[in-house]
Design a protein that fits this description.
217 residues; globular; binds fe (ii) ion; single chain; two-stranded antiparallel sheet; mainly alpha
Length: 217
């Protein structure tokens, strides 16, 4: 899996940093939970990696990470949070942040290859599928997919800890080997480009990984 070369493209359609924080705060009031801190650490991981990656912007990466799970503002849902987030941010006019809400869960770009249950209508699932097929993944899409796997609610973690964390909460489907392999591939692509382990960019990752209790999440 090769990172795209189009991450140097011009301005992206995303909220300001202040707007993004406000959106997350409003969402937390609607549906408080560990997902909020997970979003903040995803944002911090994305920024920490992006500032070392030529052509990526740290603040843009932070904003996209902060809002990737904003669909959880709609309540406690499973996979429909990706569609809720996409719809919510599209209505606000933030099309690039909306796209990340959708793509962050689909490392394989296949609506059926997910760690979760599709709690939406057949028509909505069809919409997700068509949207996914129409999207050309950028380096930002790959960055947030990666960082979603490097953040739990207490901080940064080894990717494998997040795999197990998600598996405990959502179960495992037939695509898990291919999905996990895809995450390793994205991680390797970023590390090849950065010439450094991504974990060296994540403060506290060792302490949090070995101190994190999955059953308490
Ligand atoms: Fe997430």
């Amino acid at each position: 899996m090769e990172l795209s070369k189009d991450h140097k493209e011009a301005t992206m359609n995303i909220p300001t940093l202040q707007q993004a924080h406000t959106l997350l705060q409003e969402a937390e009031l609607l549906n408080p939970g560990p997902w909020v801190q997970h979003s903040i650490f995803t944002a911090k991981a994305a920024e920490a990696i992006a500032i070392h990656f030529p052509g990526l912007d740290g603040q843009t990466a932070y904003i996209l990470g902060l809002l990737h799970d904003i669909g959880r503002r709609a309540g406690i849902t499973d996979m429909r949070h990706v569609l809720d987030g996409y719809t919510f941010l599209m209505k606000l006019g933030f099309s690039d942040a909306a796209r990340i809400c959708l793509t962050h869960s689909f490392v394989l770009q296949d609506a059926q290859a997910v760690a979760g249950i599709w709690d939406c209508s057949a028509e909505e699932l069809q919409t997700v599928d068509e949207l996914l097929q129409s999207i050309h993944y950028t380096t930002y899409d790959r960055l947030i997919q990666l960082c979603d796997c490097l953040a739990v609610s207490t901080g940064f973690c080894l990717m494998e800890v997040r795999f197990i964390d998600v598996a405990f909460r959502h179960g495992i489907d037939n695509s898990y080997k291919e999905r996990w392999q895809a995450y390793y591939s994205i991680k390797n692509d970023f590390e090849d480009a950065l010439k450094i382990s991504i974990y060296q960019l994540l403060p506290g990752v060792v302490e949090n990984t070995f101190g994190f209790n999955i059953n308490r999440q």
